[in-house]
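Module 6 notes. Inverse folding takes a fixed backbone as the condition and produces residue identities as the prediction. Think of it as a translation problem where the source language is geometry and the target language is the twenty amino acids. Below is one complete input and output pair. Work through it position by position during the lab.
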């Protein structure tokens, strides 16, 4: 019996050390998603980002992750504006003043004919990042051209 227990314990230890648990380099995967987004491969980027939701952020924040999920969902070949909005709102729930999420949510509001809501976000960007920030300039340009 003693040998059977030792044998089973040995098998158990080897099963765990055999690589059953794969470690994820969250930072590398996040950077991979950023490159995919820059190359307009939004659907693939979404898959990579979704795999990172339960990982500990390394070099990015959860708000950044949800912001990119929103961006990629909005920019994919068949935009999902509702899902994108939910991702942006999740980013803002985590970081109320995430400038990227404020800008991109403002862009979504313009795309969905909610300019007044975009103007509210523009004011928040102005307050937290200033009128000289790239995010303010981009959203302001979209609002004034609408």
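Target side of the pair, the amino acids:
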């Amino acid at each position: 019996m003693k040998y059977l227990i030792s044998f089973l314990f040995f098998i158990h230890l080897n099963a765990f050390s055999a690589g059953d648990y794969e470690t994820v380099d969250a930072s590398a995967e996040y950077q991979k998603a950023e490159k995919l987004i820059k190359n307009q491969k939004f659907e693939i980027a979404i898959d990579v980002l979704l795999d990172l939701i339960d990982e500990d952020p390394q070099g990015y924040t959860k708000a950044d992750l949800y912001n990119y999920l929103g961006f990629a969902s909005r920019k994919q070949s068949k935009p999902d504006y509702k899902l994108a909005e939910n991702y942006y709102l999740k980013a803002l729930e985590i970081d109320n003043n995430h400038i990227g999420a404020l800008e991109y949510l403002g862009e979504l509001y313009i795309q969905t004919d909610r300019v007044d809501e975009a103007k509210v976000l523009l004011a928040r960007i102005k307050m937290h990042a200033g009128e000289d920030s790239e995010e303010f300039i981009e959203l302001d340009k979209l609002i004034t051209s609408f």
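Reference fact for the lab report: The chain has one domain: 26-145.
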